[in-house]
Amino acid sequence: MRYSKLLLPTTKETPAEAEVISHQLLLRAGFIRKLTSGLYTYLPLGFMALQKVSQIVREEMNRAGAQELLMPMVQPGDLWRETGRWQKYGAELLRFKDRHDRDYCLGPTHEEVITDLARRELQSYRQLPVNLYQIQTKFRDEIRPRFGLMRGREFIMKDAYSFDVSDEAASESYQKMYDAYQRIFARCGLEFRAVEADTGSIGGSFSHEFMVLADTGEDTLVICKACSYAANVEKAAVVLPEKTPVQKEPAELTRVETPGMKKVDRVAEFLGVSPADIIKTMVYLADGEPVAVLVRGDREVQDVKLGNILGATEVELADDDTVWKLTRLPVGYIGPREIPIRTVADQEVMRMVNAVTGANEKGYHLTGVNPGRDFTPDLVGDLRQITTEDPCPSCGGQLELTRGIEVGHIFKLGTSYSQAMNATFQDREGGEKPFVMGCYGIGVSRVVAAAIEQNHDKNGIIFPLPLAPFQVILLNLGLNNEETTRAAEGLYEDLQARGIEVLYDDRDERPGSKFKDADLIGIPYRITVGKTYEKEGRVELRRRRDGETTTIDYDGAADHVASLIEDELSRLR
Asked: Which residue range or ranges hold the Aminoacyl-transfer RNA synthetases class-II family profile domain (predicted)?
């Protein structure tokens, strides 16, 4: 491709709307343009990068035995009602009516559609297992679309769905996808980790997220330094040490005046205790219903864990006015003793002795509070955020926290969708059984953004070779020199003849502008034909990742670069 013929509108200025580096560079490098909030047009180089990711995904899915199809983006509301998700999915599901007043939605995912297909077309165990996938546009009506391709409303996704005869067979399908995802992200040239994760609105019993490691990631990951354990912080289980004998006797319950003391730190200082000696009582709304949540004073509630133990779709901390309206209790002085709403306690709280809590009375706290004697919660479980002070749930080793960007997610769905939709097959004995399902997603467009978050410098993008729109950018710095131009044109043809994807910068621009654009768009290898060729018959070869620059003979340049590219791609296969 000749640069002079390419729609590639690069800019020097960083757009004010772009908060993260991938969004900034995708706009500056001319890969995308915003249509409206959360919706982007992919310009030629952006689309090429998408195609690179899609091709790797397609090859590995096919290699794992999956079959590609394409389902409608518009889905009938009746299917979603069968699974109950028409009501449960929330405002991210963009619903609308057709001219006949029938309900439809734009697909954020395709569990209902694929299950409907399976119940129509798969009747016997002889047809199983089956894994069907598509690469298609999805739409989720994000309340705050941001970060460009990282969290848009419309995006490109690969979603796959497996159908099996049993849990054991479904586990085999899950493992095949896990292995395929490992190959996909390795081939993309990304540094990533597979972590245990919450299943969220998709449902199911077990899942892994595939995270590209990047400081700008939205997700916090928990990784063990001693073993292979890795989990999203939403899923990471807190394992308490073995219970030791109580070292102190339960004290008498005492009401203490604490005027103006609403915060844990102030109460601790005033009473001369540690925040770890305080039981923090917060009121949450779980699907609209109030619930008192108890954690140690130096801990934080993990909302996803809370929602899971309550069986709630949505949980949120209630504001002060809502707390007063629902409980008639003063914020800052709420405690679990004789509280008029349901309570759920973190497992750690139940081991506390002679704790401090609110007294449910403005300006007062209680000391000498003991779980079991002075209050009994309705539910107890692992509710809090894990910390690096906690032991690894797997081996007891030391944990570290890092950041990541979710680019893939695989789920064991079980029979939740097939039972809800009466999707069954005939087993060997002639009985009817529901399909055991799995689903497997990759955010194709998000992979492009995540790759940039992980691979960039002050000058622009540094694409991993497998994802780069072009493998080589060829600069002609002697447009006014007939011999140099003839050499650049000949090298352009030689590179193409060897199957190398090359962008030929044949523009009448200053060398500095060409160098800056080459760095900005992130092409892995740069070949410059200029004064070195005129004087010595050699060309300059520069590697974008580390800036290593060498001069090589013009006559062998195409073969040399072809060998470099083949070696690099071979290491990633």
From this structure: 38-464
Nearest Cα neighbor of 526 from 554, 553, 561 is 561
CA 512, 517, 522, 524 dihedral sign is negative
Query: 136-182, pLDDT tens digit by residue?
Result: 999 999 988 989 999 999 999 999 999 999 999 999 999 999 999 99
Half-sphere exposure of 148 (CA within 13 A, CB side): 29
DSSP-assigned beta bridge partners for residue 529 = 476
- Tell me how far apart the alpha carbons of residues 389 and 399 are, in angstroms, rounded to a whole number: 7
pTM here?
A: 0.88
SS3 467: helix
Report residue 78 as tokens: 């009746």
Q: Give pLDDT tens digits for 138-148.
A: 999 998 898 99
The chain-wide mean pLDDT, for the chain, equals 94
Q: Helix or strand or coil: residue 133?
A: strand
Domain 470-572's class? alpha beta
**Residue listed under structure tokens 């409980």:** 327
Cα separation, 98 vs 104, whole angstroms: 7
Domain 254-381 CATH class label: alpha beta
Residues 529, 478: contact at Cβ < 8 Å?
yes
CATH 3.90.960.10 domain span(s) along the chain: 254-381
Band (200; pLDDT cuts 50, 70, 90): low
CATH 3.40.50.800 residue ranges of the chain are 470-572
Q: What does the pLDDT look like over 307-359, one tens digit per residue?
A: 999 999 889 999 999 999 999 999 999 999 999 999 999 999 999 999 999 99
Q: What is the DSSP string of 426-437?
A: E-TTS-EEEPEE
Check: CB of residue 6 under 8 Å from CB of residue 503. Answer: yes
Bridge partners (DSSP) of residue 456 are 461
**504: three-class secondary structure by DSSP:** strand
Q: d(Cα 543, Cα 549) in Å, to the nearest integer?
A: 7
CA nearest to 207, candidates 174, 161, 185: 174
The answer to whether the CB of 506 falls within 8 A of the CB of 474 is: no
As given in the structure block, the two tokens for residue 96 are 């609308």
> What sections of 230-298 are H helices per DSSP?
264-271
Whole-angstrom Cα distance, residue 387 to residue 391?
9
- Whether 391 contacts 354, CB under 8 Å: no
With pLDDT > 70 as the criterion, what percentage of the chain qualifies? 98
What pLDDT was estimated at residue 80? 97
For the chain, residues classed under CATH 3.30.930.10 are 16-190+414-453
